[in-house]
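Re-running Alkaline phosphatase D family protein to confirm reproducibility after the cluster update. Everything else is unchanged from the original entry.
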Amino acid sequence: MSHRPIPVFLALLLPLLLLGTHAQAQLQSGPLVGYVDMREAALWAQTDSATLVQFAYWPEGQPDQRATTPSALTRQEDDYAVTLIAGGLQPGTKYLYELLLDGKKAALDYDTSFSTPPDYRDRTPPPDFTVALGGGNYVNDKPFDPPNRIPGDSYHIMLAIMAKNPAFMLWLGNNITLREADWGSKSGMLARYHHNRALPELQPLVASVPSVATWSTHDFGPEGADRYFLGRNHAREAFRTYWPNPQYGLDEDLGLACSVRWGDAEFFVLDDRSFRDLTPLTAERRQILGEAQARWLLQSLRKSTATFKVIVMGSPFLNPAEHPDHYTAATQERDKLLQQITWAEISGLFFVSGGKDFGELTKVVRASAPDVYEVTVGPMTGRPSEDTGELNYFRVPNTTVFERQFATLRFHGPEDARQLTTTLYNADGIEQWSRTFNRSDMGAQ
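Result of re-run:
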């Protein structure tokens, strides 16, 4: 029996006609604002079934300037999640946006907005701004949690972070905790992200505070998983599905590494999982970042014109204590990179890390170079430890915090006297400690 071909216009309309036969689409999670640059922003959403998704956006107070992203149909193979790009933006502008599902505005009871970075150079003094830091987000899931334990709590921390009015947020790893049942399949990993992202307290935060993320042990796989973990590609694909970071696919040798510029600070976000190899018997062959990523970091630091250069990793960079999740696990790679940074006279350096179950500030004194500091942020909602269990002899006294927490970096002050203030807060947004660093003490500009 022969079949008549479907006319072209019907073929184009078929996906929309099929949508009409389904129940009304529902928003599963989001929307989420990913990276935001001066001229574009990444907007993410997840539905509960195949749905035509689009965003409308406009400068605050100028609804007549309304624009829309391209539309896209969410797909089961992507866990019905989609990232769309809002283009044609202007620097230093606040935008409001709406999420459209099958052409209808999604009803949301929280703010949906984002602001683009200012194009201030040679025009105005650098702006003051704040960046939020957090990780270790454990969302309970009783069938898969350890017996007789409730690891996650204090989800109101998301509102405490919003109250600090950050320009954007850096997620420092362990943003999910893959359970043993999740490690063996991509669908298991996506199910874990699916459950975590649906946390009600999370929705207002990610809808109006742009997110840039890295990963750590528990986003990647089982304890000790490295470049030989068979599920590494599934883990990377799941991460990319849920975190719309900038510059994906720039170079596979860089894994999930990316950089973000905001005001007079540039953030170099590293991937400490994809190239991890601690199996060689000889120390010089052990690696965390890998040669290509370490080279990219060094060259990017050298070329950066930012006043502050912030290195971000999902595990401690400067902490000298021996631990498989510290950069000291690949001592020679770490020492070589730090020496090259010193020789290159990189100034304005500051380090940020996650991956620990407590928070602290580390200080490293360098010969013939400015001291460098690293703030390590403990878990937001995961279970914190009761002691360090390690000897960090570079720890700044009175900075260890053993409760659920987040931190901020605040860049402020006049152009010729800029300062960086890092503050660590508990889940209620109450300050635990704060330290201010003068840019003039961080090397010549």
